[in-house]
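User: Can you predict the 3D structure for this chain?
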Amino acid sequence: MLDAAEAVVVEHGAVRLTLDAVARAAGVSKGGVMYHFPSKKALLEALVTRAIERSHAAREAQLGKLPESPGSALHAYVRASINDPLHNDRVSSALLAVVASDPKLMSPVRDFFAQRLPAISAGVPFERAALVHLATEGLWLMELFRVSPFNKTQRSRIKQLLATLAAEGGTVP
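Assistant: Here is the predicted structure, written as structure tokens:
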């Protein structure tokens, strides 16, 4: 049902997410949807939780591909955030407007960001981790909103620089 809800959100936007639309997309009755998600808000909360879990999973998957080093957690975060290996960006983009306007839906997102920086900065000076985090999030948001001024070559160079800064650890120049 969450796959169906994501499909509705991506295709029509979170504002048009209804239990009826999810039931149609999932091929189940509205009652079947309501058994698991008694309201649209409950469904949105589940979608936000799923997006956060996917972000964690993407970072962990990237971490497993890297050699252990002081900057490996930060490097894994950069790779997972910029490359969107689990294709979470389309759903995040579609949910953004609805989630941002609801303090209850924003609470897990705030918690996610508050916990993420300490988790990814282990072994790396805070200033370096914060700078890489801010630049990565800025690039991600610009691309999410389709306002990035960077061409493919520039983006590739920025990605490489962020990965290098993350992987190197050490002190901030």
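The chain is about 75% helix and 0% strand. Residues 40-63 form the longest helix (24 residues).
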